[in-house]
Write a sequence for this structure.
């Protein structure tokens, strides 16, 4: 029993000793912490906000932290005037298929923000790069109807900010923008296109921001070396209008308008001259003998297929518009002329076949061939000399030229019964098929020349 009490007593002593040692250790650590804090150790001092970059001397001079630059200058008062001028560096491309253009320009904004004013003894301005732009208020310009745009960043962001001591600000950036251009191709390729690049504030209506051209038409400058392969740049000019949105209100909108006139020489070489030559080539068949089928038929088919290829090539590089273009009129009229030349030979060949069939029937009906001279077989070239015509009939050419006519006089005997005398009946037949080629040699060129006179007088 005594042994058990000794064990309990020993356990209690051990627990009491452990508690005392723990309290002494905690008291000692607390005292050390109090002494360190009293000495001002940098370990326990409040660390600065590492997410906020320290202000530079120029930013301290402009008092960036003293103002709320999320609000426009003069908030609550009249609209802040923002002047704009543009220098067009290049007009990169014009796309008829996509109906857009790509332009590279220097866009400059001018306004006054008294919050950025600073003391200066020599009245010199301060120039900054794009890093300060993110910390102050700048106009929120955007390009209306733009498809793609970007600010150049080689070798650094092409952004410049210049601040005058009185708070006047110049904000310039170099931008390439691809914007929509509504083109009318009804006179293509003899057309003139007018495109516009539109600049507008995205958030501020005319009550908050008054956008205007700083120097009127002189606000737009262009590089004299700007040129395009297919177009002649005729004019650059500026305009200003108001744009209304039903949900937000009225906005000032600036327009950069430019007029482009298409160079015609490329299309003369690639489209008009080949089409004209194909039409003229189809007229060659009018001088080829009508019996030379292997010569005339492939010539007509070749010209028709070539015209189809030219039409397909022109339309492949154009948008699928729902109206007729000027080049379509020329090409399809040329195609009709080529196609009519093929039909012309079809008519000549058919009438020649009918002529031969009738001649054969008439020879078969003759009662006796001994009293009439035997007709000479028709040569493959389809031509007759004067002797041939005189042997068959009594027709003589007045001008001595070869004629493509035949006067056939046939004596047909008919007995209507026994004891009746024979009556001689003379039938005269004139067959004239080759004259179609003669008329075509004059009508086709004359009609095509008349069409060209009308076409170029209207569209040129």
């Amino acid at each position: 029993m005594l042994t058990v009490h000794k064990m309990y007593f020993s356990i209690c002593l051990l627990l009491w000793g452990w508690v005392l040692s723990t309290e002494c250790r905690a008291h000692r650590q607390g005292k050390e912490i109090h002494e360190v804090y009293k000495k001002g150790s940098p370990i326990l001092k409040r660390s600065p906000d590492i997410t906020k970059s320290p202000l530079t001397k120029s930013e301290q001079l402009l008092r960036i932290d003293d103002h709320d630059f999320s609000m426009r200058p003069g908030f609550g008062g009249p609209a802040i005037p923002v002047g704009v001028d543009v220098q067009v560096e290049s007009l990169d491309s014009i796309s008829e298929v996509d109906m857009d253009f790509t332009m590279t320009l220097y866009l400059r904004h001018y306004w006054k923000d008294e919050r950025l004013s600073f003391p200066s003894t020599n009245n010199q301005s301060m120039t900054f790069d794009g890093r300060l732009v993110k910390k102050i208020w700048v106009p929120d310009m955007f390009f209306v109807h733009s498809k793609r745009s970007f600010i150049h960043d080689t070798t650094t962001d092409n952004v410049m900010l210049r601040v005058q001591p009185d708070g006047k600000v110049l904000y310039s950036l170099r931008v390439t923008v691809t914007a929509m251009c509504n083109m009318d191709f009804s006179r293509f390729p003899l057309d003139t296109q007018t495109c516009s690049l539109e600049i507008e504030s995205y958030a501020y209506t005319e009550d908050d921001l008054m956008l205007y051209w700083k120097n009127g038409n002189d606000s737009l400058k262009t590089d004299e070396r700007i040129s395009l392969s297919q177009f002649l740049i005729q004019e650059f000019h500026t305009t200003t209008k108001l744009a209304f949105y039903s949900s937000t209100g009225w906005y000032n909108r600036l327009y950069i308008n430019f007029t482009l006139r298409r160079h015609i020489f490329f299309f003369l070489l690639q489209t008009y001259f080949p089409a004209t030559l194909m039409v003229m080539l189809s007229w060659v068949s009018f001088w080829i003998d009508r019996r030379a089928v292997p010569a005339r038929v492939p010539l007509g088919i070749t010209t028709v297929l070539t015209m189809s290829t030219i039409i397909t090539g022109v339309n492949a590089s154009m948008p699928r518009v729902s109206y007729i273009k000027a080049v379509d009129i020329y090409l399809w009229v040329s195609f009709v002329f080529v196609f009519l030349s093929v039909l012309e030979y079809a008519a000549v060949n058919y009438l020649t076949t009918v002529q031969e069939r009738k001649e054969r029937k008439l020879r078969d009906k003759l009662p006796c061939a001994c009293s009439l001279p035997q007709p000479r077989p028709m040569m493959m070239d389809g031509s007759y000399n004067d002797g041939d015509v005189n042997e068959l009939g009594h027709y003589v050419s007045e001008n001595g030229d070869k004629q493509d006519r035949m006067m056939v006089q046939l004596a047909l005997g008919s007995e209507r019964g026994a004891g009746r005398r024979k009556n001689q009946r003379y039938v005269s037949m004139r067959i004239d098929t080759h004259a179609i080629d003669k008329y075509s040699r004059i009508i086709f060129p004359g009609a095509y020349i008349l069409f060209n006179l009308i076409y170029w007088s209207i569209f040129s």
Remarks:
- The chain has eight helices and 14 strands.
- Residues 56 and 62 are 10 Å apart (CA to CA).
- The longest strand covers residues 80-95.
